[in-house]
Amino acid sequence: MIFFFGTRPGKTEIKQLNGIACPHCEQTDTLTMAKTSNWFHLLWIKLFRISTNTVAECSHCKRVYFEEEFTDEMNQKLLPN
Questions:
Q1: Fewest CB atoms within 10 A around its CB: which of 3, 25, 44, 60?
Q2: pTM for this structure?
């Protein structure tokens, strides 16, 4: 019997961070957050999440912020309501 297993990324969630200024260029409403999760799968069925990667990019200055670099304002916007 053959089992196919491994890891692969899930769908990327993209969210506009409105009302938040970029810490680098200080332009408002230019940050976009992208969140991707890696999943363990067996026979192409997602079983459990292994890791999650979240980044934010400013469309004005093109600076990328990793989750460790998020400001308190950015973290508050990412929390589910």
A1: 3
A2: 0.77
